[in-house]
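In response to the reviewer comment on reproducibility (Comment 2.3), we provide here a single inverse folding case reported in full, input and output, so that an independent group could reproduce the run without further information from us. The C-alpha cells appear first.
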C-alpha cells in the first residue's frame, strides 16, 4: 500500500481537488516477475484523482514526489524507512505514458506539467 502524500497549488481558483491523499493498494509482486532485471515492470493498480472545476476550464497538472520534491524522473522515491530495496514505483497516465515528476509550483511552463483537458459540467476525473 502506498501511503505517501502529494501536494500542489492551483494556478487559478477554478478547481478544487476532491481526492485528498488516495490510498493505493499495490499488488504483491514476486521476484520472479522482475527477474529480467533493470527496467522490468510488474503489477498495476489503477486509481484516479478528481477535481471540481468551473465548466470549460483548461486544467493542467504537475505531480510532485513528496519524499524528494526535486525529483524530475519517472520513479517515485521510496520513503526513508522503507524496507524495499532495488525497486521503484511509477505512475502512468493514458494507460501507457509515464508521469515525470515536477516541482510544487504554479504557472505556465512548469517542468513536467501536462494538460488534463477542459473540465466538464461536474467532476473532472483523471485516471492513473
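Designed residues, in position order:
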Amino acid at each position: 500500500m502506498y501511503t505517501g502524500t502529494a501536494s500542489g497549488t492551483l494556478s487559478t481558483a477554478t478547481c478544487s481537488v476532491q481526492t485528498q491523499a488516495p490510498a493505493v493498494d499495490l499488488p504483491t509482486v514476486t521476484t520472479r516477475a522482475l527477474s529480467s532485471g533493470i527496467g522490468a515492470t510488474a503489477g498495476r493498480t489503477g486509481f484516479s484523482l478528481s477535481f471540481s472545476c468551473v465548466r470549460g476550464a483548461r486544467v493542467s497538472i504537475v505531480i510532485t514526489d513528496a519524499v524528494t520534491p526535486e525529483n524530475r524522473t519517472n520513479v517515485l522515491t521510496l520513503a526513508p524507512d522503507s524496507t524495499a530495496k532495488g525497486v521503484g514505483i511509477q505512475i502512468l497516465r493514458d494507460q501507457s505514458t509515464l508521469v515525470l515528476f515536477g516541482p510544487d509550483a504554479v504557472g505556465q511552463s512548469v517542468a513536467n506539467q501536462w494538460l488534463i483537458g477542459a473540465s466538464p459540467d461536474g467532476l473532472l476525473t483523471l485516471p492513473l
